[in-house]
Amino acid sequence: MRRRLAAGLAVGALALAGVLAPVPASAQNRDQMTIGLSQFPSNFNPNVDSMLAKSWILYTSQRPITAFDADWKLNCVLCEELPSIAKGTAQEFTNAAGQRTVRATYTLKPNLKWGDGTPVTTKDVVFTWTIGKDQRTGFANNDFYTKKLVNVTAQDDRRFTVERDKFSCDYNNMEQFVLLPAHVEEPIYRADPENYKTKTAYDTQTTNPALYNGPFRIAAVERGASVTLEPNPMWEGPRSPFRRVVIRAIENLPALEANLLSGDVDYVSGELGFTIDQLLALQKRQPDRFTYTYRPGLVYEHIDLNLDNPLLKDVRVRQALLYAIDREVVTQELFEGKQPVAHTSVNPIDANFDPNVPKYGFDPAKARQLLDAAGFRPGPGGIRVDGQGRRLSFEFQTTAGNTSRETVQQVLQAQWKEIGVEVVIKNEPARVFFGQTMRERKFTGLAMFAWISSPDSPPRTILHSSQVPTAENGWGGQNYMNYQSARMDKALDDLDVTCDAGPRRAAWAEFQKIYAEEVPVLPLFFRVEPYAIPKTLSGLQPRGHQFSSTMGVEDWRMTGAR
After folding, report:
1. Are 545 and 4 contacting, i.e. CB atoms less than 8 angstroms apart?
2. How many CB atoms neighbour CB 226 within 10 A?
3. Residues 6 or more apart from 258 whose CB is under 8 A from it?
4. What's the rounded Cα separation, in Å, for the pair 555 and 528?
5. The predicted structure's pLDDT at residue 561
6. Helix and strand tally (H, E) in the chain?
7. Distance between first and last Cα of the chain
8. What's the pLDDT score for residue 17?
9. What is the dihedral sign for C-alpha 6, 9, 13, 14?
10. Domain 32-63+208-296+529-558 in this protein, CATH class
11. Segments of the chain assigned to CATH 3.40.190.10
12. ∠ CA 317-320-322, rounded to 5°
């Protein structure tokens, strides 16, 4: 869900970095805060399912081994220093199969503890790897555990060595490796591996302090409605002044705005709160109440296509759907041009972007020609049918209550009807859409949502043919389309091992060319993260990638009476 490096985009006199000026020393820090979020997680296990609402909450209470910071630089979080071939903490070697590979040694920081006081050790590391490579557990980053990590060995309580299946440019990156507490989760896993993902303590004992190693712990949960955080007394890092943070899920976006303006919530998440059109309108009505920041980032809005659907197997149909969308008008009229059209999953702000990638401009005549060539002719009501009498009709799904997405849906529905394609809108709450429909590939036609990723991160789990979720692999992987392409598999494999700048840019260009030609999804635009930051809130840093601002929640401060 699991990709980013650019400065913030200013609108008028808006803050570029999104970091507010320090509050005066005389101002008193508040000890409670309420935050609004537009989605509620489908579950709380950090490794099962990929959903931004979950990771946004869990970064307050659980930290990965490595992560990208606000400057898009990879850093150790739970480890002392990134392994380095130059420093001798990583070594290249040839494995028994004659393949070039690498092993890297990490040292956990001293005094790391779970919330119940149990030390975080390499036992947790080895257990997390063991359970991750068991496909029955359905880890979202299935490929990372089952293929990329050949072996994980504990040297002592703090040092462990990771052996990769082959050399890769990001050999020292463990961002996908989120530790689980072995003393809590191992007995559950051993008792019933096949049902671990539903019996995990993260869902059956969500408030157990032993599950968390970050600055906060989850103290209370009202399913579908709210999560309450309290300080983790075992946290060794900077202390937050908040003794309680309440995160409220308000999936109806106008209601979310009303709660902010009434003071029922203090702050609305920039990553998962207002849509850009909503914030632009709010800024016009309330220009002085908040600091408005529009942060470009690696958030890719697109439409997944279920390639098991016989109507979508023909690339000409997929290309026609893309030619029929006037994406420039969508982004200009709905988002004031702030969200650039996407031609592939690579953002123009990314150094890997290829300006020569094939592009699909708005061309309904070309779309009709492609549908004619694919055997679909206008039928009753103007909807096209083929020689077998099959109507060119699809279900179109997204997250219910997101007014921006629902508006885009209606625009696309009308544009596709002009070329004889019918779409039937069928939206669901985010926790259902992501927790079941997408994860278990229950959508039948089109599904609109966004991926948010790390800088320079090839989307292997999304596009590689080995990453299709199935019942057999516990619905692991994120290739929801069932996209099968030998060309794409090779391009992704090449990106893993092509590290020098020039050849790597060429490999990324090849990836983008294949993506554009084969159209596994319909690219829409790159979202800008819109923040309305209260002027009493300091220390919050918009990041623009998958490691959201809550990775620095311990630095947040809020002043003034509520």
Report:
1. yes
2. 17
3. none
4. 23
5. 64
6. 16, 20
7. 36
8. 30
9. negative
10. alpha beta
11. 32-63+208-296+529-558
12. 115
CA pair distance 505, 485, nearest whole angstrom: 21
Which helix (DSSP H) or strand (DSSP E) does residue 256 occupy?
helix 253-262
Residue 20 in this model has a pLDDT that exceeds 90: no
> Are the C-beta atoms of residues 378 and 384 closer than 8 Å to each other?
yes
DSSP per residue over 394-445, as a string? Answer: EEEE-BTT-HHHHHHHHHHHHHHHTTT-EEEE--B-HHHIIIIIITTT---S
- CATH for 67-184, options being 3.30.450.20, 3.90.76.10, 3.40.50.980, 3.90.79.10: 3.90.76.10
Q: CATH homologous superfamily of domain 298-527? A: Dipeptide-binding Protein; Domain 3 (3.10.105.10)
Strands 557-558 and 537-538: what pairing? antiparallel
Identify the three-state secondary structure at position 466.
Answer: helix
Of residues 158, 154, 160, 162, the one with CA closest to residue 121: 158
Backbone torsions φ then ψ of 144, nearest 5 degrees: -60, -45
Average pLDDT over residues 340-365: 95
Q: Which helix (H) or strand (E) holds 530?
A: strand 521-534
CA distances (Å), origin 329, targets 325, 345, 369, 396, 411: 9, 20, 22, 20, 10
User: Residue 104 pairs with which residues in a beta bridge?
Assistant: 90, 162
Q: Is the pLDDT of residue 428 over 90?
A: yes
List beta partners, residue 36.
Answer: 248, 268
What are the DSSP calls for 495-525, one per residue? HHH--SHHHHHHHHHHHHHHHHHH-SEEEEE
User: E strand or H helix at 491, and its extent?
Assistant: helix 486-497
Residue with tokens 């999804």: 521
Q: State pLDDT tens for residues 354-410.
A: 999 999 999 999 999 999 999 999 999 999 999 999 999 999 999 998 888 999 999
Angle, in degrees to the nearest 10, between helices 327-335 and 276-285? 30
Q: Which of 526, 50, 552, 38 is nearest to 255 (CA)?
A: 38
For residues 33 and 71, the model is more confident at 33
Instruction: Name the one residue in this structure whose structure tokens are 């019996």.
Output: 199
Residue 299 three-state SS: strand
CA torsion through residues 273, 64, 441, 412, sign: positive
Fill in the amino acid letter for 58: L
Are 530 and 38 a contacting pair, CB within 8 Å? no
- What global pTM score does this model have? 0.81
Q: Could you tell me where in the chain the CATH 3.10.105.10 domains are found?
A: 298-527
Alpha helices for 286-396 (secondary structure H):
315-323, 327-335, 364-373
